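Justification of resources, computational component.

The compute hours requested in this renewal are based largely on the per-chain cost of generating structure records like the one below. Each record pairs the submitted sequence with a full structure-token output. That output is archived, and it is also reused by downstream analysis tasks.
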Amino acid sequence: MLSSCSKKVLTQTQPPFSLLITLPTFLRFNLQFNAFKKLKELLKSGKHSEIDEVTGALALKDSCGNSKQGTQVHKFAVVSGLMSFITIPNSLINMYSKSGKFDKALCIFEGLSYPDIVSWNTLLTGYQKSEEALHFVSRMNLNGVAFDAVTCTTTLSFCLDLEDFLSGLQLHTYVMKSGLRSEVFGGNALITI
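The structure output for this chain reads:
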């Protein structure tokens, strides 16, 4: 157990500073980790080259619910070239969805040349209306996206909201054929519907 003095020293760490080394320390001792603040410190100290996609993604995760803060990270990601790493657009989709700016999340998604399953699922979880979400799932299917357990679980919850048992039954058949039934949370969602 850390003393309050040790916690104070750890939380007041000044540059030089490596996010990948510091983060495990904060997690190990259950300290608050303010990734956005750490990103700003790196920028102010002129250490732009030390900011990578992990740093950006953590700062965006820290910005969920705060679109003003997230927009600052978004601007930096565009200028610095970090948008070329799929982690950053996926984190932006998540941040904007959770900040009530779904239109911006959708815009980020639409700008992706090659969205991965995380991109698709992150946008899917951001939908507020079940009917729109199920249209998006149809789009996923038409684009040849292989559903995973997250896709199926999220889709089943939207089917349940709409009492769309036919779609739920179709998805159940897909889960059984694809072998996803062994996924615990997928199986729980199937039982619910």
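The radius of gyration is 20 Å. The chain has a mean pLDDT of 79.
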